[in-house]
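Morning, I've got a small favour to ask if you have a moment. I've been staring at a protein lately and its backbone has me curious. You're getting the sequence in one-letter code plus the fold written as tokens. I've dropped the whole record in just underneath, so have a look:
=====
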Amino acid sequence: MSQGDGEPFVGLLAVGMCAAGVALFVGLYRGGAWMAPRLGFRRRPNPWLRWGGLAVAIPLTLTAMFLAIELPSIAAVVATYGWNAWAGGVEVVNKHGLVSNGETLGPFWRAAIGAWILPCWLVCLAPALIWNETFRDPDQLPDASKDRMKA
């Protein structure tokens, strides 16, 4: 299966997968924000805890974002050829799905390699965002945001 085999829907599939991943992240993030006060989590403005936690969360987030670029490619190789092939050095060579053994991935995995990077990045960014939101001082916000935080 080569790149020009009449599979023009790979780009549309990738856009759909990316949109589904972003919608899932937004839904989970907003659902968590809605549930947190109901579960007893309250905002605690503490600058030392906020910046100390961010000093740990930001390097972890950047590392996870770097690894998230490789995860779809690894998943494609493992799902298509198995763990032994991946351990033996088979890897995706380019964004078009060319594999180091000379074959080409199917349209689903070619779309997934490009589409799931953004949702993976959002998931990696979530802990730092949640930490910042939890320990942020409401006095540093504009007046409209303060009214929403009181509720």
Q: What stands out?
A: Helices lie at 9-35, 47-81, 83-87, 107-115, 117-135, 143-150.
